[in-house]
């Protein structure tokens, strides 16, 4: 439960991600998720992906900097379909990049079948959303939980509490937006991430063979 103003490591600055930060954020993402599919998609793909968290009314990205250098990031959303605009705006570019990475990266070739669901999601993004009767898009998103989608810290700066600062910063921003809870999820095999979330105060809400879901109350 987040009941007090978060304390930050001296010398670490936290702020919203801007266009200038994209190359470093993409590099940090590739480093932090080197054992995930998205971490193998290359810098151009990752810069496009991270750009959707800049100046968006629903997707939020924050960076931790030390001496002006990006050393960590957190990406999150209040949207039930946070990647819909990303798919619509970059569809053919993404298809081209995926094909290129398929021939360049053995990890991509091995795991691409498991990502076919993302192709279906990309196609669905072109279909207008249906809202419940009398409910606006903003109202529909308001009842969806705010979620952290990705967090990463440079290997040179781990163990300094920067990850904790980033989650606290994100939660404080969501509290300002009127949200009372923030969720996130982890893969069952990612023991390091699961240990971090539990130590960071996240409460296990649900678990299955595919993922573990955590929640934090921020009132």
What can you see in these coordinates?
With 219 residues, the protein is α+β, with helices and mostly antiparallel strands. The chain has one domain: Aminopeptidase (3-Layer(aba) Sandwich). 39% of the residues lie in helices and 21% in strands. It is built from eight helices and seven strands. The chain has a seven-stranded mixed β-sheet with strand order 1-2-3-4-5-7-6. Helix 1 crosses helix 2 and helix 2 runs antiparallel to helix 3. It starts with 11 loop residues before the first strand and ends with a strand.
Strand content: 15-25%
Gap between N and C termini = 7 Å
CATH topology: Aminopeptidase
Q: Could you give a short account of the major beta sheet?
A: 7 strands, mixed
Can you count the helices?
8
Strand tally is 7
What value does the average pLDDT take? 86
The first-level CATH class is given as Alpha Beta
Q: How many discrete structural domains?
A: 1
Over the alpha carbons, how many angstroms does the gyration radius reach?
17 Å
- Let me know the CATH homologous superfamily: Gcn5-related N-acetyltransferase (GNAT)
Shape: globular
CATH architecture: 3-Layer(aba) Sandwich
- Specify the helix fraction band: 25-40%
Show unreliable segments.
131-137
Strand order of the largest sheet: 1-2-3-4-5-7-6
Q: State the secondary-structure class.
A: alpha+beta
Order of helices and strands: EHHEEHHHHEHEHEE
């Amino acid at each position: 439960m987040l009941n007090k103003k978060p304390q930050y490591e001296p010398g670490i600055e936290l702020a919203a991600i801007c266009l200038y930060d994209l190359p470093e954020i993409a590099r940090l993402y590739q480093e932090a998720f080197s054992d995930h599919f998205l971490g193998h998609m290359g810098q151009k793909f990752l810069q496009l992906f991270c750009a959707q968290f800049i100046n968006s009314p629903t997707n939020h990205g924050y960076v931790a900097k030390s001496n002006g250098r990006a050393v960590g990031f957190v990406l999150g959303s209040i949207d039930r379909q946070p990647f819909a605009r990303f798919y619509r705006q970059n569809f053919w570019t993404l298809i081209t990049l995926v094909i290129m990475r398929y021939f360049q990266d053995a990890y991509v070739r091995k795991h691409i079948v498991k990502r076919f669901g993302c192709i279906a999601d990309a196609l669905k993004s072109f279909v207008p959303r249906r809202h419940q009767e009398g409910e606006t898009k903003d109202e529909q998103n308001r009842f969806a939980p705010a979620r952290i989608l990705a967090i990463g810290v440079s290997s040179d700066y781990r163990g300094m509490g920067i990850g904790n600062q980033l989650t606290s910063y994100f939660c404080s921003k969501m509290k300002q937006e009127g949200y009372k809870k923030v969720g996130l999820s982890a893969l069952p095999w990612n023991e390091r991430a699961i240990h971090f979330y539990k130590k960071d105060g996240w409460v296990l809400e649900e678990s299955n063979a595919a993922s573990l879901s955590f929640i934090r109350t921020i009132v």
